[in-house]
Write a structure and sequence with these properties.
The complex is a heterodimer of chains A (402) and B (264).
Chain A (H helix, E strand, L loop, with lengths): L8 H18 L3 H7 L4 H10 L17 H14 L4 H19 L2 H13 L3 E5 L15 E5 L2 E12 L1 H7 L4 E8 L9 E7 L5 E5 L10 E12 L3 E2 L5 H37 L1 E2 L2 E2 L4 H32 L5 H29 L10 H10 L8 H13 L8
Parallel strand pairs in A: 1-4
Antiparallel strand pairs in A: 2-3, 3-7, 4-5, 5-8, 6-7, 9-10
Helix pairs in contact in A: 1-3, 1-4, 4-5, 4-8, 5-8, 8-9, 8-10, 8-11, 9-10, 10-11, 10-12
Chain B lengths: L1 E5 L2 E3 L20 E3 L1 H17 L2 E7 L5 H10 L3 E5 L9 H15 L4 E5 L10 H9 L3 E11 L2 E8 L2 E8 L2 E5 L11 H9 L3 E3 L40 H14 L7
Parallel strand pairs in B: 1-4, 1-6, 4-5, 5-11, 6-10, 7-10
Antiparallel strand pairs in B: 2-3, 7-8, 8-9
Helix pairs in contact in B: 2-5, 3-4
């Protein structure tokens, strides 16, 4: 009987701890974060104290190196406490990409960067998208050419999360694992991943105005002859595309968990309301028109949650060499696709049950829908998730771009 | 400074309460959590340890599944944890509980302070702390907000109605801690993981050499005859008229009748 839906006692204990922290430090600040478009320094400091930035980093570099399911338990509690998703994004992007940094980074890079990252003094993000390439990453035009023991990067990255945080809020800065072309002739096999500190010379930033999850910054930037040391190359030259896909799988599984947690919390808030709100003398929770779709949404979220945890489990199985890369990609794509759509539909209905209040900026559900909507494209668009799933079930010969 | 902290598992106040037919709380079906006030006691103990050195031991008399509450104390930073658990203890009232706990404390031996929450969020009697002190024959002070160690004394700021008392108490002593005393720490992820790896000592009635006649239902003089849900009826009275000053006057007079007077 190997299938077991229970969490370990340690995971339950960690969940309680993160929940206590998030409800105390984050929940009271959610609306403020959205209005001021900033995660308060105190929250980042407390997240760091708790150890939330060391989740993917090996113990030898001062981290905790937790398994993906435990990382998911943590993000679930952050998401329940922060329906705007700003703090979950800060956590999950760093968790997914610091995992990649420790797996593929060179020893000198890891010794320099990872202890700071584990302590929450340095933030690690991801920069793949460009003005002319998002879903179709092989069309990126940012290049890096080697000069001595440095790489010189030129190009532009767009819609990147965590820029201002790395620039100003993390004591030692931070940067993004940046996808560049080192051999443009070779298409996606000519791509390389390089860690580019955001405080490097030659970076010009333009902040974007997002619709939601405004607490965490979102920016596009030009890279003009940005010089980075060779040791910042993550993995082998030419392997960047594959490394990016691996990181996206982890991020997608965590995002699926976030969407389910946000949707469930949104429904819980809604249930408190519909039980008390009366029309025609009865609570609106008694109407089939409300309770039937509520029940359906609840069940669908639970199903999506299981798929999200299956994806996190698959990542762990891959670490143990028990399942293949492709299987992980497929499960993560399934989880993200289902979770995002399920969450959007559930929150959309729940907002309607709130009546006019559901349309105000004071209703926490408006934060939630704006946040989960971002995942229709962030970390891989829903249609790309479908292409990945179709590739695995139909075969590579049916890829639309082949 | 060696400190023993008494911690009690209580039904999670955020979870819905289910009552058994006899009116008592159905503890089997409610998720347990560490009594809120005991968390403040643990925090107080850890701060004393950080300032004056020593060791902190947490002890709980509870069913086996309450061991999680001790893990939370370990994660917060206590050095050791002891679970006093035995079927013969089931049904103990505050007197029998205090007796059993005092026997366990005698077995631990060497201590300077015993701290516990000022009451529990389920029973709310506030009896156990003072009763443990009486069994041990040591002084005790309730509702303590601030603690300072001065040689063989502890100087405490004690919350009383309308103000504070400053008391000097000879060590060893037992203090019950208020929820205004401090802000309990939230452990780090690493602390939690470390706490999971620590062994928790489990003692039975035999280990603490307790008199079987003084524990459990048999050793408990308290009998709960009935538990009733208190229904507070909201009083509503409408003050109306055209003279606002008069309305305010009659409103204040009504408040005064209920013993409420406004400070000027």
């Amino acid at each position: 009987m190997p299938l077991d839906f229970r969490f370990t006692e340690e995971q339950d204990h960690l969940r309680r701890t993160v929940k206590e922290f998030a409800e105390k430090f984050i929940t009271p600040k959610v609306f403020e974060m959205e209005q001021k478009e900033k995660i308060p320094d105190e929250i980042i400091r407390e997240m760091a104290r708790l150890g939330l930035f060391g989740v993917s980093i090996p113990e030898e570099y001062g981290g905790l190196y937790l398994d993906p399911i435990t990382a998911g338990v943590i993000v679930e509690e952050l998401a329940k406490a922060d329906l705007s998703c700003s703090t979950p994004v800060l956590y999950l992007v760093h968790t997914a990409w610091s995992y990649i940094a420790q797996k593929y980074g060179k020893k000198e890079f890891k010794e320099e960067v990872l202890p700071l990252a584990a302590e929450g003094k340095l933030w690690i993000g991801i920069a793949t998208t460009e003005p002319g390439a998002g879903s179709d990453l092989r069309s990126i035009i940012t290049t890096a050419r080697k000069e001595g023991n440095e790489y010189v990067v030129n190009g532009e990255k767009a819609f990147i999360s965590g820029v201002r945080e790395a620039l100003k809020q993390f004591e030692m800065g931070g940067g993004h694992l940046t996808l560049v072309k080192t051999d443009p002739e070779k298409g996606h096999r000519g791509m390389t991943m390089i860690f580019i500190p955001i405080r490097s010379q030659g970076i010009t930033i333009k902040y974007e105005k997002g619709w939601g999850r405004k607490g965490i910054s979102w920016a596009s930037y030009k890279l003009d002859n940005v010089r980075v040391p060779e040791k910042y190359v993550i993995g082998d030259e030419g392997r960047g595309f594959y490394i990016a896909m691996e990181g996206f799988d982890y991020a997608r599984a965590l995002i699926a968990t976030v969407c389910c947690a946000v949707a469930k919390r949104a429904l819980e808030i809604t249930m408190d309301y519909i039980k008390q709100r009366k029309v025609f003398g009865v609570s609106i929770a008694k109407f089939e028109g409300v309770q039937f779709p509520l029940a359906e949404h609840w069940a669908r979220i639970e199903a999506a949650q299981l798929l999200a945890y299956k994806a996190l489990w698959a990542l762990q199985m891959e670490r143990e060499g028990k399942i293949s890369r492709f299987e992980v990609s497929k499960t993560a794509a399934e989880a993200k696709m289902i979770a995002v759509l399920t969450a959007i539909r559930a929150i959309d209905d729940a907002m309607r049950w709130f009546g006019a209040f559901g349309y105000t900026e004071e209703c926490p559900l408006t934060l939630a829908i704006k946040a989960v909507k971002s995942y229709e494209w962030a970390e891989g668009a829903t249609d790309i998730m479908k292409i990945i799933i179709a590739r695995e079930i139909l075969g590579r010969e049916f890829l639309p771009y082949r | 400074m060696n400190i023993i902290v008494l911690v009690k598992p209580v039904p999670d106040p955020k979870a819905p309460v289910r009552l058994k037919p006899d009116g008592t709380i159905d503890r089997e079906k409610v998720p347990l959590t560490m009594n809120l006030y005991d968390k403040h006691a643990v925090e107080a103990a850890l701060r004393i340890k950080e300032r004056y050195g020593g060791k902190v031991i947490a002890i709980s008399m509870a069913p086996p599944h309450a061991i999680e509450i001790l893990r939370e104390a370990l994660a917060m930073g206590v050095d050791d944890a002891i679970l006093l658990s035995d079927k013969r203890l089931v049904g103990s009232d505050t007197l029998a509980t205090s007796y059993a706990l005092s026997q366990a404390i005698l077995k631990i031996g060497n201590f300077d302070l015993i701290l516990c929450g000022m009451e529990s969020t389920d029973g709310n009697t506030g009896h156990v702390g003072p009763e443990v002190a009486e069994f041990l024959g040591i002084p005790h002070t309730t509702y303590v907000e601030r603690i300072e160690i001065k040689n063989e004394y502890v100087v405490v700021k004690r919350l009383v109605e309308g103000g504070y008392e400053l008391l000097k108490v000879k060590i060893p002593a037992l203090l019950t801690i208020t929820n205004t005393a401090n802000e309990p720490r939230i452990p780090t992820i690493r602390d939690v993981i470390k706490a999971r790896r620590k062994a928790i000592t489990v003692w039975s009635v035999n280990d603490i050499k307790a008199d079987p006649n003084k524990i459990g239902l048999f050793g408990s003089p308290t009998r709960i005859l009935k538990i009733e849900k208190v229904v507070l009826k909201r009083k509503s009275k409408i003050f109306s008229g055209s003279d606002v000053d008069k309305i305010i006057e009659s409103f204040l007079a009504e408040l005064k009748k209920d013993g409420i007077s406004l400070l000027r």
